[in-house]
Amino acid sequence: MLMSLNVIGLRTVAAFSARKLLMNRRWMLVMLLGALVALVMGYAATEDGANLDFASDLMVILLLAFLLPVLSLIYGASMIRNEMDDRSIVQVITAPLDRRISYLGYYIGLVMVLCLLITVVTSIGGLAFLIFSPERAGGAQLIITFIALQYLGVLVYSALFLFLGTLMRQPIYLGLIYIFIWEGFIASVPGSIGKLTIRHQLEVVASELTDLGSVAWTSGDWVVSVLALVAVTVVLVSIGAFVFRQEEVA
Q: Domain range holding 92?
């Protein structure tokens, strides 16, 4: 009986939160980001020497290093925090459902929405490149590869920024610092410290999935990277659920 209640509650919270995210006006920002990606990819394809290696490098910069973490921050950091601020979360925390289950429902809803948005934007950007590029063979596979790679990234970034949004009142600033300083600058620093980023671990996995672009030469064991990303995700979701359970809503 309790198991059935938890499953129903989990599904309800996940569906409700996903629907709420999709109805939010932030989709206008997603459209602008998608248009930007398509514009850059389409224009780059018209340059001399533009090939799929070049497309792969562009996708690493535009998608893995920028779009993926930024979208995760925009949606994840404000998901629970906004409901706490406007007190709409009272309906969730007063329901006969363990808050940890509710938190997991929020996380699942966030992941579903981000995966949908990532799929749409990546497909549009990839197709924009292929339309104007003289080299198209293998292009569809490259698009699918980066979509799948970002799904893995969504799991980790969603866990991170949802946790920050639960823990802090103004998580956006720390999130931006993390994205542009740690993931952006530190990831490009030679040596071991650059490997301690989500982006680097995703690039290691990418090196196993594709032989196109400079990412194919990223050194590391992709199995270890996948396990590390999954472990970080589990830890962040577990800590976030604990913090959410203890959170007091004024």
A: 2-246
Q: What single-letter DSSP state applies at residue 192?
A: G
The whole-angstrom separation of Cα 104 and Cα 9 is: 10
Residue 149: Cβ-neighbour burial (10 angstroms; 0-12, 13-18, 19+): buried
pTM: 0.91
pLDDT tens-digit map of 58-81: 999 999 999 999 999 999 988 887
Domains in the chain: how many in total? 1
Torsion on CA atoms 96, 99, 102, 104, rounded to nearest 10: -150
* pLDDT-above-90 percentage for the chain: 45
Q: Would you state the structure tokens that stand for residue 171, as one six-digit string?
A: 């998580």
CB atoms within 10 A of CB 120: 14
